[in-house]
Amino acid sequence: MPGPGPLQAMRKRQAIAAAGWVTGAAASLAAATWVRHAWVQAPGLAVWCESHASQWPCPGREAVVQAFIEHRLSTTALVLVVLAWALARFVPRSWAPSAASVMAWLALCVACAGLVLYDSDRAALAALGAALLGLDVASRPIQPTLDTGRERQP
Protein backbone atom coordinates (compact mmCIF):
# COMPACT_ATOMS: atom_id res chain seq x y z
CA MET A 1 0.00 0.00 0.00
CA PRO A 2 1.54 3.34 -1.01
CA GLY A 3 2.14 6.06 1.55
CA PRO A 4 0.33 9.39 1.64
CA GLY A 5 0.69 11.54 -1.44
CA PRO A 6 2.36 14.94 -1.50
CA LEU A 7 -0.99 16.73 -1.40
CA GLN A 8 -2.05 14.89 1.75
CA ALA A 9 1.31 15.60 3.40
CA MET A 10 1.01 19.29 2.51
CA ARG A 11 -2.51 19.47 3.96
CA LYS A 12 -1.33 17.80 7.15
CA ARG A 13 1.51 20.33 7.53
CA GLN A 14 -0.92 23.19 6.91
CA ALA A 15 -3.34 21.83 9.52
CA ILE A 16 -0.55 21.52 12.09
CA ALA A 17 0.64 25.06 11.33
CA ALA A 18 -2.90 26.44 11.60
CA ALA A 19 -3.35 24.70 14.95
CA GLY A 20 -0.12 26.30 16.18
CA TRP A 21 -1.31 29.76 15.16
CA VAL A 22 -4.69 29.31 16.84
CA THR A 23 -3.14 27.80 19.97
CA GLY A 24 -0.61 30.64 20.27
CA ALA A 25 -3.28 33.31 19.88
CA ALA A 26 -5.58 31.58 22.36
CA ALA A 27 -2.79 31.15 24.93
CA SER A 28 -1.83 34.80 24.55
CA LEU A 29 -5.45 35.90 25.01
CA ALA A 30 -5.84 33.67 28.07
CA ALA A 31 -2.61 34.88 29.70
CA ALA A 32 -3.45 38.53 29.02
CA THR A 33 -6.94 38.06 30.41
CA TRP A 34 -5.52 36.53 33.59
CA VAL A 35 -3.02 39.41 33.96
CA ARG A 36 -5.78 41.95 33.38
CA HIS A 37 -8.13 40.50 35.99
CA ALA A 38 -5.54 39.32 38.55
CA TRP A 39 -3.24 42.34 38.51
CA VAL A 40 -4.71 45.36 36.76
CA GLN A 41 -8.37 45.20 37.79
CA ALA A 42 -8.03 43.25 41.02
CA PRO A 43 -10.16 44.81 43.76
CA GLY A 44 -8.02 46.68 46.24
CA LEU A 45 -4.69 45.87 44.59
CA ALA A 46 -4.15 49.41 43.29
CA VAL A 47 -4.65 50.86 46.78
CA TRP A 48 -2.43 48.22 48.38
CA CYS A 49 0.32 48.85 45.81
CA GLU A 50 0.37 52.56 46.63
CA SER A 51 1.68 51.77 50.10
CA HIS A 52 3.65 48.59 49.21
CA ALA A 53 5.17 49.52 45.84
CA SER A 54 8.24 47.30 46.14
CA GLN A 55 6.40 44.09 47.11
CA TRP A 56 5.27 41.54 44.56
CA PRO A 57 2.96 41.76 42.51
CA CYS A 58 3.15 45.57 42.50
CA PRO A 59 6.25 45.88 40.27
CA GLY A 60 4.68 43.49 37.75
CA ARG A 61 1.41 45.36 37.87
CA GLU A 62 3.20 48.66 37.31
CA ALA A 63 5.06 47.20 34.32
CA VAL A 64 1.80 46.03 32.77
CA VAL A 65 0.12 49.38 33.35
CA GLN A 66 3.07 51.25 31.81
CA ALA A 67 3.07 48.84 28.85
CA PHE A 68 -0.44 49.78 27.82
CA ILE A 69 -0.12 53.47 28.72
CA GLU A 70 2.90 53.81 26.42
CA HIS A 71 1.52 51.43 23.72
CA ARG A 72 4.48 49.07 24.05
CA LEU A 73 2.54 45.94 23.13
CA SER A 74 1.06 47.27 19.89
CA THR A 75 4.30 48.95 18.89
CA THR A 76 6.24 45.73 19.45
CA ALA A 77 3.68 43.77 17.44
CA LEU A 78 3.82 46.26 14.56
CA VAL A 79 7.62 46.16 14.51
CA LEU A 80 7.51 42.35 14.41
CA VAL A 81 5.04 42.46 11.50
CA VAL A 82 7.27 44.81 9.53
CA LEU A 83 10.35 42.66 10.21
CA ALA A 84 8.47 39.50 9.21
CA TRP A 85 7.30 41.18 6.03
CA ALA A 86 10.87 42.24 5.22
CA LEU A 87 12.12 38.70 5.82
CA ALA A 88 9.41 37.25 3.62
CA ARG A 89 10.10 39.68 0.78
CA PHE A 90 13.85 40.25 0.74
CA VAL A 91 15.60 37.21 2.22
CA PRO A 92 16.26 33.96 0.28
CA ARG A 93 13.41 31.47 0.40
CA SER A 94 15.52 28.65 1.83
CA TRP A 95 15.17 29.86 5.43
CA ALA A 96 13.16 33.10 5.32
CA PRO A 97 9.67 31.53 5.26
CA SER A 98 10.14 29.80 8.57
CA ALA A 99 11.76 32.88 10.14
CA ALA A 100 9.08 35.18 8.71
CA SER A 101 6.33 32.82 9.84
CA VAL A 102 7.71 32.59 13.38
CA MET A 103 8.08 36.36 13.57
CA ALA A 104 4.51 36.88 12.29
CA TRP A 105 3.28 34.32 14.84
CA LEU A 106 5.03 36.21 17.64
CA ALA A 107 3.50 39.45 16.34
CA LEU A 108 0.05 37.86 16.46
CA CYS A 109 0.60 36.67 20.04
CA VAL A 110 1.82 40.09 21.22
CA ALA A 111 -1.03 41.82 19.37
CA CYS A 112 -3.59 39.51 21.00
CA ALA A 113 -2.19 40.43 24.41
CA GLY A 114 -2.44 44.10 23.43
CA LEU A 115 -6.09 43.65 22.45
CA VAL A 116 -6.91 42.46 25.96
CA LEU A 117 -4.58 44.81 27.85
CA TYR A 118 -6.12 48.13 26.75
CA ASP A 119 -3.87 48.66 23.73
CA SER A 120 -6.38 47.74 21.07
CA ASP A 121 -6.02 50.60 18.59
CA ARG A 122 -2.76 49.56 16.92
CA ALA A 123 -2.85 46.00 18.22
CA ALA A 124 -5.86 45.22 16.01
CA LEU A 125 -3.95 46.44 12.97
CA ALA A 126 -0.90 44.39 14.00
CA ALA A 127 -3.02 41.25 14.55
CA LEU A 128 -4.62 41.62 11.13
CA GLY A 129 -1.25 42.24 9.47
CA ALA A 130 0.36 39.27 11.23
CA ALA A 131 -2.47 36.91 10.29
CA LEU A 132 -2.48 38.03 6.65
CA LEU A 133 1.30 37.80 6.45
CA GLY A 134 1.23 34.31 7.94
CA LEU A 135 -1.31 33.23 5.32
CA ASP A 136 0.77 34.81 2.56
CA VAL A 137 4.00 33.11 3.64
CA ALA A 138 2.28 29.73 4.03
CA SER A 139 0.67 29.89 0.58
CA ARG A 140 3.81 30.68 -1.43
CA PRO A 141 5.17 27.92 -3.63
CA ILE A 142 8.78 26.89 -3.25
CA GLN A 143 10.84 26.89 -6.46
CA PRO A 144 14.30 25.31 -6.55
CA THR A 145 17.00 27.22 -8.37
CA LEU A 146 18.66 25.58 -11.35
CA ASP A 147 22.29 26.15 -10.43
CA THR A 148 22.59 25.32 -6.71
CA GLY A 149 19.49 23.37 -5.80
CA ARG A 150 18.66 25.91 -3.10
CA GLU A 151 15.12 27.17 -2.77
CA ARG A 152 14.09 30.71 -3.60
CA GLN A 153 10.87 32.64 -3.64
CA PRO A 154 9.24 33.58 -6.96
How would you describe this structure to a colleague?
- With 154 residues, the chain is an all-alpha fold.
- It has one domain.
- It is built from 6 helices and 2 strands.
- A hairpin with a 6-residue loop joins strand 1 and strand 2.
- Helix 1 packs parallel to helix 5, helix 4 runs parallel beside helix 6 and helix 5 packs antiparallel against helix 6.
- The two termini are 36 Å apart.
- About 3% of the residues have low confidence.
Approximately what portion of the residues adopt beta-strand conformation?
under 5%
User: Helix/strand/pairing class, anyone?
Assistant: mainly alpha
Query: What number of domains?
Result: 1
Largest sheet: 2 strands, antiparallel
Order of helices and strands: HHHHHHEE
Largest beta sheet: strand ordering? 1-2
Number of strands: 2
C-alpha end-to-end distance: 36 Å
Gyration radius over CA: 20 Å
Helix content: over 70%
Give the count of helical stretches. 6
What is the overall pLDDT average?
83
Q: Which runs of at least 5 residues are low in confidence (pLDDT < 50)?
A: 143-147
Shape: elongated
